[in-house]
């Protein structure tokens, strides 16, 4: 068994391990986009209308909005 170099251990610890490795900023952007899409769908008109019926309706309305509009 050999000792890992600093750049190899960065892959395991979540740091940037080189030009080909995704950086923390890339992960932050991806998470931010996902949260933004979810928030946008949950605040849509179909989600609000169906959400007045039940919490499940809120989720179904958000999914309906995302599928039909995006």
Automatic annotation (TrEMBL):
Domain of life of the source: Bacteria
Chain intervals with Polar residues compositional bias: 1-10
Protein name: Transcriptional regulator, MarR family
Segments for region (Disordered): 1-24
